[in-house]
DNA sequence: CGACCCCTTGAGGCTTCTCAAAATCCGTGG
DNA sequence: CCACGGATTTTGAGAAGCCTCAAGGGGTCG
């Protein structure tokens, strides 16, 4: 098996601190599932740095020293693992409110890359740990977050292990629509922050197969494609049926 | 796509409390990664029930009310998700010391089934939660466990999304050997507690493909198969090479 | 000894990948 | 405003890996 497709060689760029908010982002306060109370907010803010990241910027790579924890304020990030020959698998897409870099070992297990301009809160690992020791309630909530991550990963494992290409695409579109709706962003048509290559690497397919499935769904009049990165779901019921059709 | 293979229809069997330990199990104390201290041990034991389970017994199914948390004392358990048409994906195998049933929602996200005679500690959900509220240290350790689970799941996602059949088998054998060695059990030859069907459902393959890969590895003299459920790794380096060969 | 289950092996088909090229989009600059 | 170059997406043809279907082998247990 050769390389899945040409991988963009993007060297890690040192992150720039920035006091001016991303122009495309409205200011959002730090949230961990539910908004924090005053005490939590204060203690976390004390050790946090707000950072604004460019599109396609590597935040860290698999194997790097895990020295920071991040919380996304706005934007999107992909998590991925790669093999020696260049094959890449995206393990998840993150959005506002999501955490990354939370792991116990001293190196990151995945690489993180922004899909668009992204604003994050950055916590030094040790400082974050100390705040947690101080706030059992916060740790409690992080445990819930981690458990939700496990559930999401298990769903993805089912998708990758047992679903056909069309089922994967249908499942993906439904999931994206739900997540976008849950965040209160404009749904239908939804806008995908990722390219075909990133969708392919997320679903364990090739760019061509992703494109062909999109085209087929459009010809069946189940979705509309006003632009390459915009998807209008025209027939939700048929899309759901396709997401688990044998 | 038709059914992956005939699924054994196993109805949930009410679990039997048992005071006599499994005969194949040596007594083990409750552990959560590291052994618990006296206080933790006491508080957890107060709400725990020791249960002995038969092979191929369903502990709970996807969608069931999540009323208990379990910790495996000895034996093996598979976690799986299924689709309406019978396709099944095993999301993980658990062994002594592992937790299951830890999730935030009120229903289980996966089904759990014993692979062999298995002994577990069972905690009512509410009681477990209360003990946790009392012991921040314990919750801290559970967070580490959950984060390790996420890392394992990400590895499996890479395997399912991007690896060939032979790479999956090689990766699986290496992982099994490592886990068995880490538990201080006899390695080389290692004994697999799961059938070919379960290996297939774990690796996103069919029974036949799993069998063909095993045979091929044996003919290459990379592994030995003294019995169907025993694997001797003869050339670790070549097996590791195969686990990520293009 | 025979039934049953699990595993192995074989032949053929199908989904998806690979390789290739055309079409579309988009920012840049004349 | 339009031409140009690069990147992304789409489409096509053929190949390959894995699945499906089918049959045979080996072990266990009654």
Short précis:
Two copies of one chain form a homodimer. With 246 residues, chain A is α+β, with helices and mostly antiparallel strands.
Polypeptide structure, described:
The first copy, chain A, has 246 residues and is α+β, with helices and mostly antiparallel strands. Chain A is built from seven helices and 13 strands. The first copy, chain A, folds into two domains: 126 residues, Sandwich (Jelly Rolls); 80 residues, Arc Repressor Mutant, subunit A (Orthogonal Bundle), CATH 1.10.10.10. In chain A, helix 4 packs across helix 7 and helix 5 crosses helix 6. The two termini of chain A are 27 Å apart. The N terminus of chain A is likely disordered. Chains A and B meet through strand 7 and helix 3 of A and strand 7 and helix 3 of B. The structure holds a DNA duplex (30 and 30 nucleotides).
Low-confidence stretches of chain A: 1-29
* The level-1 CATH class of the largest domain in chain A: Mainly Beta
Largest interface: A-B, 48 and 48 residues
- Quaternary class: homodimer
Backbone CA Rg of chain A: 19 Å
CATH topology type of the largest domain in chain A: Jelly Rolls
Strand content bin of chain A: 15-25%
List the total number of helices of chain A: 7
Describe this protein with a few key phrases.
homodimer; alpha+beta; Jelly Rolls; Arc Repressor Mutant, subunit A; 2 domains; four-stranded antiparallel β-sheet; globular; DNA-binding
């Amino acid at each position: 098996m050769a390389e899945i497709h040409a991988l963009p060689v993007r060297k890690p760029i040192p992150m720039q601190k920035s006091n001016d908010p991303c122009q495309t982002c409205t200011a959002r306060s730090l949230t961990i599932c539910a908004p924090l109370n005053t005490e939590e907010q204060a203690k976390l803010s004390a050790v946090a740095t707000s950072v604004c990241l460019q599109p396609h910027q590597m935040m860290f790579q698999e194997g790097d020293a895990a020295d920071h924890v991040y919380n996304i304020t706005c934007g999107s990030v992909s998590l991925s693992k790669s093999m020696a020959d260049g094959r890449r698998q995206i393990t998840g897409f993150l959005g506002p409110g999501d955490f990354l870099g939370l792991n116990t070992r001293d190196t990151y297990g995945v690489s993180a890359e922004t899909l668009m301009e992204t604003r994050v809160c950055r916590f030094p690992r040790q400082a974050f740990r100390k705040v947690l020791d101080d706030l059992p309630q916060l740790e409690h909530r992080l445990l819930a977050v981690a458990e939700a991550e496990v559930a999401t990963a298990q769903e993805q494992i089912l998708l990758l292990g047992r679903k056909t290409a069309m089922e994967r695409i249908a499942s993906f579109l439904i999931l994206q629509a739900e997540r976008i709706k849950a965040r209160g962003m404009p749904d239908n048509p939804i806008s995908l922050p990722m390219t075909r290559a990133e969708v392919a690497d997320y679903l364990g397919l090739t760019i061509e197969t992703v494109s062909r499935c999109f085209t087929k769904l459009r010809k069946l009049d189940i979705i509309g494609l006003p632009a390459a990165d915009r998807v209008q779901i025209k027939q939700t019921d048929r899309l759901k049926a396709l997401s688990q059709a044998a």
